[in-house]
Amino acid sequence: MSATIEFYVAQAEKCTAEAEASALTQVRDRNLRAAAAWQAMADKLLHTEQLRAEKNAAMAAAHGG
After folding, report:
1. At 30, phi and psi to the nearest 5?
2. What are the sequence ranges of the domains in the chain?
3. Per-residue pLDDT for 2 more than 80?
4. How far apart are CA 45 and CA 60, in angstroms?
């Protein structure tokens, strides 16, 4: 897992914690939206890295490596 994915996940967790701690509806909603956005970025990057690894493995196998 790259540091970027870890950063995105940490940000999502931070926003979720801030949402849970907030008594204000607007602040809670804003933090939940931000958490969802951070998590989506982490998920997308993880998926991209998995596809890249699969592609590299396929290329290595095709070239006898």
Report:
1. -60, -45
2. 3-62
3. no
4. 22
